[in-house]
Amino acid sequence: MHRRHDILNRNAFPEIVTFLWTGNLSCSAIKVDWRPEIEKPPALRVAEDNFWETLRRKNPLANLFNGRLAELRDYRISADHIYLNLQPSDYRAFMYSNAHRQEILQKYGKEFINQGLGISAIVRTEDGRIMLMRRSETVGEYPGKLDVFGGHIEIGRHLVNGTPDPCLAMREELHEELNLEPDEILNLRLIGLLRNAETAKPELVFLAEIALRLKALQEKAASAADRGEYSALLALPDETNAIRNYLKDRSAHFSPSGFGSLWLYSNIERLGIDRL
């Protein structure tokens, strides 16, 4: 089932994110078409390589790893499914494209704007808390910003029968960042697809209800494998007005995907989407 996203785009600071789709789908309703990578102009590949080396020299302490990622080329919505056309890419190309969007458009065309697909999750605890993090100062994207939890669909780690699985990727990101085990994630639903207005990066937004109260989650997260990716865990009451006011007061302190994901969650009832 999908809903009109007009209500969000009228009210959710469109200079930060654009909502492409909102709804409520199970993981089985996410269908992936895995396509070969398009051939890039040699000059573009050289520019990506040079930019990556410059980043590494400027930020020797940053956690920069050129992992292989899934890139969104297109998507389609039906009454009860979302169809994602994905192709291989990497973090280096993604970072270069984020910083050189207009140049790529002018020299090579829209098809060479990298759309590395991000994944984000609104995490709701058993005692009604919505979890946030403050990103570490050493991460490659939006250091120091407030955010929800997530990452990317990594090729080689998040494949099922040779095809990227967004839900597997989301569950593994929650394990790595919060130390959540599979049976502690009671329900995982896809509730939206948004786009970063600045970089054009698309982001799948999930809603995850977990079988842990806030204190237990904090204790588990202290030993998470990727605990170093954030400097602090924060918790908001699962109350619509509290979430909206928090966003309005701190919009400049959020990553675009974190802002958009949380704003979407605060508008679930207005969109006719049931909470978990």
Protein described:
- The structure is a single chain.
- The protein is built from eight helices and 14 strands.
- With 276 residues, it is of the alpha+beta class.
- Strands 1, 2, 6, 7, 8, 9, 12, 13 and 14 form a nine-stranded mixed β-sheet that branches. It has a three-stranded mixed β-sheet with strand order 3-5-4.
- The chain starts with a strand and ends in a 10-residue tail after the last helix.
- The model has no long low-confidence stretch (mean pLDDT 90).
Question: What is the fold's blueprint, element by element?
Answer:
Layout: E1 2-3, H1 6-11, E2 17-25, E3 30-34, H2 42-58, E4 68-77, E5 82-90, H3 91-99, H4 101-107, E6 118-124, E7 129-135, E8 146-147, E9 149-152, E10 159-160, E11 163-164, H5 166-178, E12 185-196, E13 202-210, H6 214-221, E14 230-237, H7 240-250, H8 256-266
Parallel strand pairs: 3-5, 6-13
Antiparallel strand pairs: 1-2, 2-12, 4-5, 6-7, 6-9, 7-8, 7-14, 10-11, 12-13
